[in-house]
């Protein structure tokens, strides 16, 4: 009788150990699956309009820095330092938004300088047959000369009062930027040089942006002074 009891006890211990091992293995698998599911996916400019806008802003600022290094003047070092600080801030925004940090879209504005000469034709159609453009675009176009037709607008990342930077218009030029997706507009002066037709600083961009977006795809840009 004592022998049977001993064997029964050993079997019970063996079964308990096996059960604990199986439970532990299951817990490990569940923990591993949970950790894999929690790892965030990094978004690219192709995945998100927010990431695209930030990549465009970073690319425009980098393009400006490259231009300053290629043709330096007495103020180039200060301008480059300022834009490097802006790029650092954009990278912080990319990380916070789940975007690929450091992703740049320098080519996004590359074809725009070719549109600098023909803006005189849109201005004629804007001032005379304003209804030709239709809706809000036609009414807004009558208040100034339309420029940079087809350009997108993003932010420079710079602080301060509402202002703009441009590679086509000198400091002191007044530009009106209208976001045709929400009919919001801002009128600002150009205060510095950038790598594209128009970049709005943070304050100006906030006046016309759609929530959560860092890029205006349908923009009406006018020279009003």
From TrEMBL:
- Low complexity: bias regions: 104-131
Q: State the UniProt keywords alphabetically.
A: Signal
InterPro entries cross-referenced by the UniProt entry: RlpA-like_sf
Q: Where does the secretion signal sit in this chain?
A: 1-31
Region feature (Disordered): 103-143
Protein name (database record): Septal ring lytic transglycosylase RlpA family protein
Q: Which organism is it from?
A: Streptomyces cylindrosporus
């Amino acid at each position: 009788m004592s022998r049977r009891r001993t064997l029964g006890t050993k079997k019970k211990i063996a079964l308990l150990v096996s059960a604990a091992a199986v439970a532990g293995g299951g817990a490990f698998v569940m923990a591993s699956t949970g950790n894999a599911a929690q790892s965030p996916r990094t978004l690219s400019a192709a995945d998100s309009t927010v990431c695209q806008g930030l990549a465009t802003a970073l690319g425009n600022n980098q393009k400006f820095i490259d231009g300053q290094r290629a043709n330096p003047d007495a103020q180039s070092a200060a301008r480059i330092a300022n834009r490097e600080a802006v790029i650092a801030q954009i990278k912080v925004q990319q990380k916070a938004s789940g975007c690929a940090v450091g992703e740049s879209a320098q080519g996004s504005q590359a074809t725009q300088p070719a549109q600098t000469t023909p803006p005189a034709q849109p201005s004629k159609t804007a001032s005379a047959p304003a209804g030709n453009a239709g809706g809000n675009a036609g009414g807004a176009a009558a208040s100034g000369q339309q420029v940079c037709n087809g350009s997108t607008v993003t932010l420079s990342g710079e602080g301060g009062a509402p202002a703009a930077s441009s590679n086509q218009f000198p400091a002191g030029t007044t530009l009106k930027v209208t976001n045709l997706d929400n009919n919001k507009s801002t009128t600002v002066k150009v205060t510095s040089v950038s790598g594209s037709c128009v970049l709005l600083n943070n304050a100006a961009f906030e006046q016309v942006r759609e929530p959560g977006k860092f890029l205006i795809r349908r923009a009406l840009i006018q020279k009003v002074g």
